[in-house]
Specification:
The structure holds two protein chains of two kinds.
Chain A lengths: L1 H18 L10 E10 L2 E11 L4 E5 L6 E9 L4 E8 L6 E10 L7 E8 L2 E9 L1
Chain B lengths: L1 H16 L2 H4 L6 E11 L5 E8 L5 E9 L1 H6 L12 E8 L6 E9 L5 E4 L32 E5 L27 H4 L4 H12 L25 E6 L4 E6 L6 E5 L18 E7 L2 E7 L19 E10 L2 E9 L8 E11 L15
Parallel strand pairs in B: 3-5, 10-11
Antiparallel strand pairs in B: 1-2, 1-4, 2-3, 4-5, 5-6, 7-15, 8-9, 9-10, 11-12, 12-13, 13-14, 14-15
Classes of the chains: A mainly beta, B mainly beta.
Chain lengths: 131, 362
């Protein structure tokens, strides 16, 4: 019985994995979600949408009423490092966001960007996974 | 236990679906001898399982891939050519890594010395400029067979697509470069595109969406090893392009005089939105509206949703189909570029149905 259950789970997992269709174009294009924070107990959700127009990658953090347009997105294809810069709004004025990360598993539909996120004086790690 | 076996078969199918260069190490040869324990007569490739005893006397079961059942039956090999317990000698190419798996190049029945299998020969494509291309009553060239006849187009020789000005770029039929330094000559890629292309080449094309049964849009449909067929439905103003293999979908080229849609209005698909017109004996097809979920050429050339193809398809004689394509994708390439392929007519046959079911057995 244990074998049967394990086999069924394996089958479902296999089908789920192989049913995913990767996006095969520019590796940053798409919607990414994840979080950042100084530690495991303090995380802030991030949704980020990026597009590539042939010259520039543009993006928005948390699309919607509180959207933060990203000033610049840099991708170094020699080592797949990524850098974002943006200004978040606050009552006391804009807060600078800079994030440096690395793009991993680029062939996957659910590739990731992980690295360091700085927002004003706060600093933490972040991870974004392409939806 | 039956479910356990099912999972094993699913996994095997996926492994076999991968590009052969990614699975097998063609730099090595292997010779196996043992008794047949199981025969799987399945798409895309039949398998023999044999018990092989090593020098230390340890017996291990090997999976031997012997090719597509349709090709095998064409070469007089059937599922009854061998029986369980027959001892065979297999010469072939081993899988990369430690997997006990091999791709057979020949199989010999040990008891009789009879050679049961050699790597199937390529399709018997017609040779030479033997006759003019068939035509419709109004004089238009037919891309398919003449009335009452059968036939389809098979890619022969080099199936790789490279910029036509690039001479001597060596690559195999899967589009794998012999020398990665030639990447710049394949197509004028933007830096990100070249980096992705090189990544795909270095990983031996293992992430090719085709291995997950994703449709081969664009020129890739004409690079498929099992050929393509044109169904010209002149009464409704369209041409269907069917491929031998994949998951039995087809591409539609509208020839009813409609205008191409604006890119933003087009629903993005694997085959895009294609509008064709005849310029004398050449079918000129304009296509936009491709999604980004497939590789439009073997070898892993990337593209974006901005891909715009202009294909020129002509049949200079009965046995020759010339396919040229101009690739314009300013988000991926520094400029438009053109490449082409020549396909040969396979007379007297329909394309064969190789079923590919996503996630299970391509």
């Amino acid at each position: 019985m244990r074998i049967v259950v394990a086999s069924l789970i394996g089958l479902v997992v296999a089908l789920r994995v192989f049913a995913a269709a990767a996006q095969e174009g520019h590796p940053l294009t798409g919607t990414w979600s994840g979080d950042w924070g100084p530690g495991a107990a303090q995380r802030t959700h991030i949704t980020m949408v990026m597009t590539w127009d042939g010259k520039t990658v543009s993006g928005t953090i948390n699309p919607g009423p509180e959207a933060i347009p990203v000033d610049s997105i840099g991708l170094d294809v020699t080592n797949w490092t990524v850098r974002f810069e943006a200004d978040a709004k606050s009552a006391s004025g804009p807060i600078r966001i800079t994030a440096d990360g690395r793009l991993d598993d680029i062939a996957s539909a659910h590739r990731t960007i992980t690295g360091t996120w700085r927002q004003g004086t706060a600093k933490g790690d972040f991870k974004l996974t392409r939806d | 236990m039956r479910c356990g076996l099912l999972v094993l078969i699913v996994s095997s199918g996926v492994a076999l679906a991968a590009q052969r260069s990614a699975v097998y190490d063609s730099e090595r040869q292997i010779r196996l001898e043992g008794a047949v324990t199981r025969i799987e007569w399945i798409n895309p490739s039949a398998l023999l399982f044999i018990d092989v005893r090593d020098a230390g006397g340890v017996v291990a079961n090997w999976a031997v891939e012997v090719g597509n059942p349709i090709d095998l039956e064409r070469n007089k090999w059937t599922r009854r050519s061998l029986r369980i317990g027959d001892v065979v000698t297999v010469e072939g190419v081993p899988a990369r890594g430690l997997a006990r798996q091999a791709l057979a190049r020949s199989i010999m029945h040990k008891a009789t010395g009879k050679r049961l299998f050699d790597l199937p020969a390529p399709r018997p494509a017609a040779a030479g400029r033997t006759a003019p291309a068939p035509r419709w009553p109004d004089g238009q060239v037919r891309l398919g067979p003449a009335p009452g006849q059968k036939g389809y187009w098979a890619a022969t020789g080099v199936r790789a697509l490279v910029e036509s000005t690039a001479a001597n770029v060596r690559m195999n039929d899967e589009g794998l470069l012999a020398n990665l330094a030639d990447a710049d000559r394949v197509a004028p890629m933007l830096p990100w595109a070249k980096a992705i292309y090189l990544h795909r080449q270095r990983t031996l094309l293992k992430d090719d969406p085709l291995t997950r049964c994703m449709p081969p849009g664009g020129p890739r449909q004409f690079q498929m090893p099992n050929g393509v067929q044109f169904i010209e439905q002149r009464e409704v103003g369209r041409i269907l392009v069917l491929m031998g293999g994949g998951n039995r979908n087809w591409r539609v080229i509208y020839t009813d005089g409609r205008q191409q849609g604006q890119a933003a209005e087009v629903v993005l698909t694997y085959y895009g939105s294609s509008v064709g017109r005849w310029e004398k004996d050449t079918l000129v097809v304009d296509s936009i509206g491709y999604n980004e979920r497939f590789w439009f050429s073997n070898g892993g050339l990337p593209h974006t949703e901005a891909l715009h193809l202009t294909e020129r398809i002509s049949r200079p004689d009965l046995n020759t189909l010339r396919y040229d394509v101009t690739v314009d994708d300013p988000r991926t390439y520094t400029r438009p570029w053109t490449g082409g392929l020549t396909l040969r007519w396979v007379p007297g046959e329909d394309i064969e149905e190789y079923f590919c079911e996503e996630g299970i057995t391509p």
